[in-house]
Amino acid sequence: MKKTKLLSLLYLLCLLMLFASGSLSGIVSQAVYILSFILPTVIGLYLVRREEKGEKELPVSLDSRALGLLIPVVAPTVFIIIFISLFTSFLIGLIFGAQSSVELGDSLPLAILSHAILPAILEEALYRYLPMRLWGRERDGSLVIISALFFALVHRDFFVIPYAFIAGALFMTINLLTDSIWSSVILHAVNNTLSVVWIFYSQSAEFVIGFYVVLAVLSLISLIFIFKKRSEYINGIKKIFGGKKITLGGEILYFALPTLALAALDLAAKV
């Protein structure tokens, strides 16, 4: 089976199960939500193993080189994602008069666990690790776009799709640079955790100002380290985007059409 078609079908299974979990409540809803990511991942990895012939396994830990490339990009990555998120919300609000809303409950630790840590692990396994394993040594820059596109669409919310696409592209790029899935898990968890904290305390003007000032300062400091290692980043990115291109055919429509339809219905309900 064509690899992109397989991904489309697995992600469609994830989408259907996520939709089912939203129709349920309590612990059953949570169980189905978790299975929405685990089941397609397990199926995909099983099929990959059947076809693998001496492919290089992805490392389960970050070595010193990988950490040296990862740490400087954390703050700038979060800054970019949050900026695009705010800009998207402003633009949709201006055009359609709709506002995004997120229910996180009253407990910050629980919100961080359920909306930051858990999604980071589950989503990275399905939307980054599985494609990296599926393409093995053939993975290149096209994989960055493919994984980001699927990752963005699964959120089925026009408030989220734009910044989820950018986030997905950045996450996969740093994974390929460091050759480790843990890079995107860390980036994803940090980004989601800061987003949850921001939502909890966004009513405080002092907190919001301090939040952006600290993030901007950290991003500027990080850019200094990125500049010092610029040759390593540039050479790595050239290597990623200079390989054989992965083709993406009409199979994306299996996944794109239902997700965009759900996103349109959700936006119409908010207008």
Explain the overall architecture.
The chain is mostly helical and 271 residues long. The chain has helices at residues 3-22, 26-51, 64-96, 108-135, 141-154, 161-178, 182-201, 205-228, 230-241, 252-270. Helices cover 79% and strands 0% of the residues. The chain starts with a helix and ends with a helix.
| Approximate shape | globular
**SS class:** mainly alpha
Name the average pLDDT: 89
Tally of strands:
0
Q: Give the number of helices.
A: 10
User: Hey, roughly how much beta strand do the residues contain?
Assistant: under 5%
Task: Give the topology string: H per helix, E per strand.
Answer: HHHHHHHHHH
Give me the Rg, rounded.
19 Å
Distance between the termini: 41 Å
Which short descriptors sum up this protein?
10 helices; globular; about 80% helix; about 270 residues
Write the layout of secondary structure elements.
Blueprint: H1 3-22, H2 26-51, H3 64-96, H4 108-135, H5 141-154, H6 161-178, H7 182-201, H8 205-228, H9 230-241, H10 252-270
Helix pairs in contact: 1-2, 1-10, 2-4, 3-6, 3-7, 3-8, 4-5, 4-7, 5-6, 6-7
Short description:
The protein has 271 residues and is mostly helical.
